[in-house]
Amino acid sequence: MKRFISILLMMILVVTSFASTAFVAEAEETLYVSGDYKYRFAVGTKIEIAEYKGKSEKLVIPQAIDGHTVIGIGKNAFAGNDKLLSLTIPNTVTYIDDFAFLYCSEMTSVKLPDNLEKIGKGAFSYCFSLTGINLPTTLKSIGDLAFTECSEIKTMYIPINCQEIGKGAFC
Question: If we measure between CA atoms, which residue out of 148, 166, 119, 146 comes closest to residue 5?
Fold first, then answer.
């Protein structure tokens, strides 16, 4: 029953996140391609990863792509990647957006950056194999359902500076 409710909540969040942006008229977004990565400009010349199409099992995300500093992991950027087993995110990254690693079901470990401030809603949801994750002391916000169904994580310490923990973040 708990699993059903968490899946239902996740589906509602995903649908509402798409629905809320569907009615906003936006200019066509430009994505740039470099190897296995697609990226977009986030702030000035700094970028966020928009998509990863590689097949690496052990991935170390670069600090820069095409000479541009990587400061974020975008929405759904790695979602559904069932090849990824371990991941290291560089210290240049300050945010992980919504659903960034949703259903990376085989991922067992993640090394988060020391400067991370935000983990978006559903960011690591349904990462069933994730066994542990150390949250950095700089973390200020953990989104709704951020670690839903990460049942292999037995212990997690929340940094004292964390100001916001979303609904169902650890269910």
Answer: 148
